[in-house]
């Protein structure tokens, strides 16, 4: 039969016959270059000498064919096999200096092709530009420097390509420490100690590699003379016997020559011999607290205790050379964890190692006189049982050889599928115990060498010539002790400098950004943090991150903030392939180009279609992932979500980010934190920040004072001090842009004596290009504070500048000489009145930090104590804020002994945020104007007995616009002021009918209000629009009218439009728009889901999936208000839920 392959990257046609197999030789496939083909072979077998039977071949092309960067020499040839050699010449690196330019350049090109290809950016602009940089560096210097991301990628792939390693399934979890800035042996020792401390992790071992500077022309190498970072000494006795480990006799003698005083024990940890370029090696004993050892005990045999065996927990190979893109790193210690038989069989039982087998068998009273008793096998099994048992009792990571074999088989399967091959050395991968009981024993494997890779090196003492004299002065004990002391002290600081933390935020109002900056200040003391907005962050970078912290809000009914949803516009810079997602009713998969938020969006959208309003995620629908996902993450992460329990999907987007990072392989170091803006958000964030800082320090073995650091960062006293802030006169007054949008009038939409007020505001735009809009858009308005409130507050300022004088705030820099300067001003130079009127928020209740700051200024001891309690007791603060809802002026009136310095007000008060309103006009119908429908909200705090407050509230939905196809049916649902954007819809359709001759539109309006006599705003306009064909049908429900049954918009949909809703949405590509408060929107969503399930004869879950698809296609639109004071019942209910949740979180912790 013919074996056929499907060639890849060649000019050969498919199914080209490569080799004919006969029934004598069976299936044989040779001479196939794994770089060129992805093999897919039909399976043949024989039954009883008859004709061969065949299964049909299944062609499975490799998505990422294995790349061989040039010809690689292997030990074997056509006449002989040298696969069992320990150190074949071809796997050893000769110390001949760096490669020549001609040899280095093609290897660098291959590596960059592999690197950018892994991100689906091969041949992109970024790839081309980077290749040009490398070529220029090689031409000018003879070498080049890897970027940090390239170094991490190369180190991980060197482990992935290590043919002799069984544990490679964890290759992408490798922690890479970049020590290329190292300059001395002392710094090397500090980095090595850091590595051991991190990797040991109190017994919960973690894979890690530390990479020292690369081999460079004209300079010696950085070398670690030890074969492993931790290893026991071996001493040759006068009688020829050996005490300790025979494998280290030579190194032990070398250490003694360089000043080590051996204790002559059986398990003495060797010191490190570290060598900087062109220097003699230096001796560094390891601090005992760094070396975790495990005493070997058996669960039932007491004789093991008598033998006094023990072994070190961390296997850390330190004599291999790391090769990445032609660059060589002679010092790159690498550590993982043990397979039990490595210790039990090789280290203890091998004749050339500790050789305890005979002694153990005799203690077990086995018959050692004949091999027929299998005493060796019995003793070896018990030794392995003892090793596994001892490590488990000591809670130290270890894996048995059966589990290791199964994990390798899984890795082999993954690699064959993912990249078409997996270099594997059968001799090394088959465990030294159990033989054919291991699945690896029966697996045919192919061994070849890929780059990046690890290579063996000659022991340095065999070729090194000491500088100056052949005798090296022995170091005194004091010198060695001092070196250890200094290194131990610096270890945590060096670790901190190397661990980078990426803090990502997504925010609508800026609060997430502020929290992210606070988190950065906290982590600065120990880590190297950077803060990035999600729309600036390339999700591909996640693969190379070490620590990722996410602070994000949730916008509207579970959507991401706007700056978290911007798609990457890469152009020629390449396309980012993310996880494919499948539409619920489509067999095809689509690929997306997206930022982090885009990557999360497809995950969380499925969560929000459940009938249940609970915050749980029981209905979470996981995405189906193809066989070519993003590479698994190796980073640690934690997420903090900001939200409001006024919305049914509390912190939904943050939960999606948290879940997605875990799905992609990240390790969560702390459960997700939640901050409710209705109750205790500030305190929740502080608690989470302290906890995640402590968890990060423990994860990366960094010594710090997290409580002290957190207290300092979250203390407002450090951000403002009276003697460090002053006002200075600015000679240029604030340049106001007058007349950009002037008020053209206001019209009340309710009768004069009505208890509530809704007005139509008309703004003249003057046809400015910046104010062009489409029906359904929103207008952001920066409100001005009440002049009366500003005037009263100005009277409380203790040091106001002269009226009308333009000022700015200067800060005194720390130092020997006084130096006042303006640091990152939040406000432009302006008068104090302008700042309080247009820029600063003086109506929102002061935060706990501001109260803490005011407490330091209080002159009355009782007021000071009360303010301190409010600033520290989260529950007390929340009750006070909710009951009084005080403005800044009311707080100052409650605590009259508190002065208010002008510099404090200008630097510590929050900034005013814009309010967004639905535009209720169409540009064609009202050129040069913008109409807003505004509900004038006012309320009394303190259970209706406090001062009168005013509020505005709205959110912003960027996709709330009419469909491009005017014939598409539209269903508009909006009770009360939710009708505002729909006014622009029917005006636009009416303008198109009258001016462009378009046919009547199919637009159904579902409106709800309280009373038929007083609350039908725009009633005459609606009737006119219906008569002229802009509205095809109008349904109105009244909730508090004695002449009509209580009816809500949900009831109208269910009773009068059930069949039409299904017809429009499922069969006619229609659109549905919902505008109003969150409670109504949730009820409408549930009603629509029930309608689709009933009319479409589907399950509720299927109806939810269908709504998710409509949302993804922008055919189900929501413009949702948050918490309003429209009813005391709603406000109190949500507040009660939020307060109960906050109390529970404070008791249970994050």
From TrEMBL:
GO BP annotation list: nitric oxide biosynthetic process
Catalytic activity, reaction form: 2 L-arginine + 3 NADPH + 4 O2 + H(+) = 2 L-citrulline + 2 nitric oxide + 3 NADP(+) + 4 H2O
Cofactor(s), names only, from the UniProt record: FAD; FMN; heme b; (6R)-L-erythro-5,6,7,8-tetrahydrobiopterin
PROSITE patterns found in the cross-reference section: FAD_FR, FLAVODOXIN_LIKE
Molecular-function annotations in GO: calmodulin binding; flavin adenine dinucleotide binding; FMN binding; heme binding; metal ion binding; NADP binding; nitric-oxide synthase activity
Domain FAD-binding FR-type: 722-988
Main enzyme class: oxidoreductase
Cofactor notes: Binds 1 FAD. Binds 1 FMN.
Domain Flavodoxin-like: from-to ranges: 501-693
Highest taxon of source: Eukaryota
SUPFAM superfamilies reported in the protein's UniProt record: Ferredoxin reductase-like, C-terminal NADP-linked domain (SSF52343), Flavoproteins (SSF52218), Nitric oxide (NO) synthase oxygenase domain (SSF56512), Riboflavin synthase domain-like (SSF63380)
EC number(s) from the headed UniProt entry: 1.14.13.39
Binding-site list for heme b: 165
Keywords, alphabetical: Calmodulin-binding, FAD, Flavoprotein, FMN, Heme, Iron, Metal-binding, NADP, Oxidoreductase
Pfam families in the record: FAD_binding_1, Flavodoxin_1, NAD_binding_1, NO_synthase
Family: Belongs to the NOS family.
Subunit text: Homodimer. Interacts with NOSIP and NOSTRIN. Interacts with HSP90AB1. Forms a complex with ASL, ASS1 and SLC7A1; the complex regulates cell-autonomous L-arginine synthesis and citrulline recycling while channeling extracellular L-arginine to nitric oxide synthesis pathway.
Protein's job: Produces nitric oxide (NO) which is a messenger molecule with diverse functions.
Protein name: Nitric oxide synthase
Organism the protein comes from: Anolis carolinensis (Green anole)
Lineage: Eukaryota, Metazoa, Chordata, Craniata, Vertebrata
């Amino acid at each position: 039969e013919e074996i056929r392959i499907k060639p890849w990257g060649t000019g050969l046609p498919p199914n080209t016959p490569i080799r004919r197999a006969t029934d004598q030789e069976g299936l044989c496939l040779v001479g196939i270059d794994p770089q060129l083909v992805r093999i897919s072979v039909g399976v043949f077998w024989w039954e009883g000498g008859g004709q061969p039977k065949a299964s049909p071949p299944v062609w499975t092309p490799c998505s990422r064919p294995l790349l061989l960067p040039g010809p690689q020499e292997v030990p074997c040839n056509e006449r002989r096999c040298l696969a069992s050699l320990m150190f074949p010449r071809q796997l050893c690196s000769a110390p001949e200096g760096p490669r020549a330019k001609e040899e280095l350049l093609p290897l660098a090109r291959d590596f960059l092709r592999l690197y950018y290809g892994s991100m689906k950016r091969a041949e992109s602009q970024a790839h081309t530009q980077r290749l040009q940089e490398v070529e220029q560096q090689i031409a000018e210097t003879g070498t080049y420097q890897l970027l940090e991301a390239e170094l991490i990628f190369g180190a991980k792939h060197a482990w992935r390509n290590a043919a002799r390693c069984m544990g490679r399934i964890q290759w992408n979890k490798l922690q890479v420490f970049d020590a290329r800035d190292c300059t001395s042996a002392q710094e090397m020792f500090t980095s090595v100690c850091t590595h051991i401390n991190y990797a040991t992790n109190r017994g919960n071992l973690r894979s890690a590699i530390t990479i020292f500077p690369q081999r460079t022309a004209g300079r010696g190498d950085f070398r670690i003379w030890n074969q492993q970072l931790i290893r026991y000494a071996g001493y040759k006795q006068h009688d020829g016997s050996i005490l300790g480990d025979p494998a280290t006799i030579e190194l032990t003698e070398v250490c003694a020559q360089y000043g080590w005083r051996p204790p002559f024990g059986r398990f003495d940890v060797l010191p490190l011999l570290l060598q900087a370029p062109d220097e003699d090696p230096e001796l560094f004993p390891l601090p005992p607290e760094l070396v975790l050892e495990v005493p070997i005990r058996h669960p039932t045999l007491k004789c093991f205790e008598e033998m006094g065996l023990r072994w070190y927990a961390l296997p850390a190979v330190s004599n291999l050379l790391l090769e990445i893109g032609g660059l060589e790193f002679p010092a790159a210690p690498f550590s993982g964890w043990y397979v039990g038989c490595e210790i039990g069989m090789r280290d203890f039982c091998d004749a050339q190692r500790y050789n305890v087998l005979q002694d153990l068998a005799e203690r077990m009273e086995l018959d050692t006189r004949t091999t027929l008793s299998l005493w060796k096998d019995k003793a070896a099994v018990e030794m392995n049982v003892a090793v596994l048992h001892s490590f488990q009792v000591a809670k130290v990571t270890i894996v048995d050889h059966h589990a290791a074999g199964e994990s390798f088989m899984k890795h082999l399967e993954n690699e064959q599928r993912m990249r078409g091959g997996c270099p594997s050395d059968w001799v090394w991968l088959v465990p030294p115990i159990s033989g054919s009981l291991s699945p690896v024993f029966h697996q045919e494997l192919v061994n070849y060498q890929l780059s990046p890779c690890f290579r063996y090196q000659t022991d340095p003492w065999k070729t090194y010539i000491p500088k100056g004299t052949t005798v090296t002065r022995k170091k005194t004990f004091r010198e060695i002790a001092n070196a250890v002391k200094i290194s131990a002290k610096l270890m945590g600081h060096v670790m901190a400098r190397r661990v980078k933390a990426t803090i990502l935020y997504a925010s609508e109002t800026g609060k997430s950004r502020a929290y992210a900056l606070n988190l950065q200040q906290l982590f600065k003391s120990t880590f190297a943090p950077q803060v990035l907005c999600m729309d600036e962050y390339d999700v591909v970078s996640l693969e190379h991150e070490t620590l990722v912290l996410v602070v994000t809000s949730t916008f509207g009914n579970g959507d991401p903030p706007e700056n978290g949803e911007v798609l990457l516009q890469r152009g020629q810079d390449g396309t980012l392939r993310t996880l494919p997602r499948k539409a619920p009713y489509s067999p095809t998969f689509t690929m997306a180009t997206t930022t982090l938020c885009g990557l999360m969006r497809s995950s969380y959208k499925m969560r929000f279609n459940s009938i249940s309003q609970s915050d749980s995620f029981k209905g979470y629908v996981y995405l189906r992932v193809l066989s070519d996902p993003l590479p698994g993450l190796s980073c640690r992460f934690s997420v903090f979500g900001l939200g409001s329990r006024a919305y049914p999907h509390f912190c939904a987007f943050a939960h999606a980010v948290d879940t997605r990072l875990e799905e992609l392989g990240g390790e969560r170091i702390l459960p997700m934190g939640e901050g409710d803006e209705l109750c205790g958000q500030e305190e929740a964030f502080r608690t989470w920040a302290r906890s995640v800082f402590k968890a990060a320090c423990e994860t990366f073995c960094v010594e710090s004072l997290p409580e002290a650091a957190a207290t300092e960062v979250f203390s407002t006293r450090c951000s403002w001090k009276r003697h460090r802030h002053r006002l200075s006169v600015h000679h240029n007054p604030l340049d106001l842009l007058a007349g950009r949008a002037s008020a053209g009038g206001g019209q009340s939409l309710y009768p004069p004596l009505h208890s509530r007020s809704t007005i139509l505001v008309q703004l003249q735009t003057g046809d400015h290009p910046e104010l062009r809009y489409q029906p359904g858009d929103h207008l952001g308005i920066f409100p001005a504070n009440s002049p009366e409130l500003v005037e009263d507050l100005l009277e409380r300022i203790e040091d106001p500048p002269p009226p009308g004088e333009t000022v700015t705030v200067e800060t005194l820099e720390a130092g020997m000489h006084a130096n006042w300067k303006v640091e990152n001003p939040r406000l432009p130079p302006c008068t104090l009145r302008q700042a309080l009127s247009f820029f600063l928020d003086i109506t929102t209740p002061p935060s706990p930090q501001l109260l803490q700051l005011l407490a330091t200024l209080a002159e009355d001891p009782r007021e000071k104590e009360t303010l301190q309690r409010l600033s520290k007791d989260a529950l007390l603060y929340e009750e006070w804020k909710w009951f009084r809802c005080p403005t800044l002026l009311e707080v100052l009136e409650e605590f009259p002994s508190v002065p208010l310095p002008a510099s404090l007000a200008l630097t510590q008060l929050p900034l005013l945020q814009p309010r967004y309103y639905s535009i209720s006009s169409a540009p064609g119908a009202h050129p040069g104007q913008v109409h807003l429908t505004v509900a004038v909200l006012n309320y009394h705090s303190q259970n209706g007995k406090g001062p009168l407050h005013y509020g505005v509230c709205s959110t912003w939905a960027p996709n709330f616009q009419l469909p491009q196809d005017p014939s598409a049916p539209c269903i508009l649902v909006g009770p009360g002021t939710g009708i505002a954007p729909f006014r622009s819809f029917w005006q636009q359709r009416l303008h198109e009918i009258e001016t462009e001759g378009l046919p009547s539109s199919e637009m159904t309006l579902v409106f709800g209000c309280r009373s038929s006599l007083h609350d039908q705003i725009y009633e005459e306009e609606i009737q006119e629009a219906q008569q002229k064909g802009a509205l095809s049908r109008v349904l109105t429900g009244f909730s508090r009218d004695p002449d009509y049954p209580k009816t809500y918009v949900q009831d109208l949909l269910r009773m009068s439009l059930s069949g039409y809703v299904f017809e429009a949405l499922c069969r006619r590509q229609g659109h549905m728009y919902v505008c109003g408060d969150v409670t109504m929107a949730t009820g409408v969503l549930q009603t629509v889901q029930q309608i689709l399930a009933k009319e479409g004869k589907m399950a509720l879950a299927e109806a939810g999936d269908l709504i998710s698809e409509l949302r993804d296609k922008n055919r189900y639109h929501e413009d949702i208000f948050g918490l309003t004071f429209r009813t005391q019942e709603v406000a109190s209910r949500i507040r009660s839920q939020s307060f109960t949740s906050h109390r529970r979180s404070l008791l249970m912790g994050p």
